[in-house]
Amino acid sequence: MSETPYRRASGRGAAREVSIPPVGLGGSLSIPAEATGLVLFAHGSGSSRFSPRNNHVAEALRDAGLGTLLFDLLTEREAADRANVFDIPLLAERLVMAANWMMDSGAAEGRALGYFGSSTGAAAALVAAAQAGEDIAAVVSRGGRPDLAGAALAEVKAPTLLIVGGLDTQVLELNRAAYAALACEKEIAVVRGATHLFEEPGTLDEVIVLARDWFVRHLQGGGRAQG
């Protein structure tokens, strides 16, 4: 995949802590000056909005002129019940809730919205994108389980990029099956020498380039979202 030219943002935008109604989900919202798109992050099981890998990706997206929202998909009490952590419909509902809040608050006015999902969060992102139709402009999965989105895969309209570690063999096969079920614009990128968490030297940097270029290509034209 070739790199997409992009404009480095003049400022990343000050991050501010937010509480997403109606259940009070904690989040960190950062919108650089003149941002043309916004990416909502859906972390995987056992993680949170403080995920170092997701924050590293988010920093690069802000440098490329995109806003980011990292937020907890569950309240502290909900997260204590492990069943909720793997409840894909519930997690997707929370992504939709966050996207609606951003549109209602005006943060998304004139800006395209995208989802970045990791592990089980990728399945939630795809289910939420299927429900949103053309209101979501792009989806990226990092080491995700898109197969858990099930029948929703065929309903996704947003251009979708699946990024998988080449050494993460079981998840790679699951991603290939999910890729075949997607009917939207799609790509699958296999990062050579990477395991599930992309901990090997240079592998997360490759993820960042892939994700950044995908979002820049599909979000930097403005969106349908209106405040």
Task: Write a structural description.
The protein is of the alpha/beta class. The protein has one domain (16-219): Alpha/Beta hydrolase fold, catalytic domain (Rossmann fold). It has 7 helices and 8 strands. The protein is globular. The termini are far apart. Mean pLDDT is 89; it is low at 1-11 and 222-227.
How are the elements arranged and paired?
Layout: E1 16-20, E2 25-30, E3 37-42, H1 52-63, E4 66-71, H2 76-79, H3 82-85, H4 88-105, E5 112-118, H5 120-132, E6 136-142, E7 160-165, H6 169-181, E8 186-191, H7 203-219
Parallel strand pairs: 3-4, 3-5, 5-6, 6-7, 7-8
Antiparallel strand pairs: 1-2, 2-4
Helix pairs in contact: 1-7, 4-5
- Strand content is 15-25%
Number of domain modules: 1
Q: What percentage of residues falls in helices of 4 or more residues?
A: 25-40%
Shape: globular
Class derived from helix and strand content: alpha/beta
Rg from alpha-carbon coordinates = 16 Å
Distance between the termini: 34 Å
Number of strands: 8
CATH architecture: 3-Layer(aba) Sandwich
Q: What is the name of the CATH superfamily? A: Alpha/Beta hydrolase fold, catalytic domain
Report the uncertain regions. 1-11, 222-227
Main beta-sheet strand count, sense and barrel state: 8 strands, mixed
Number of helices: 7
CATH topology: Rossmann fold
Name of the CATH class: Alpha Beta
The helix-strand sequence is: EEEHEHHHEHEEHEH
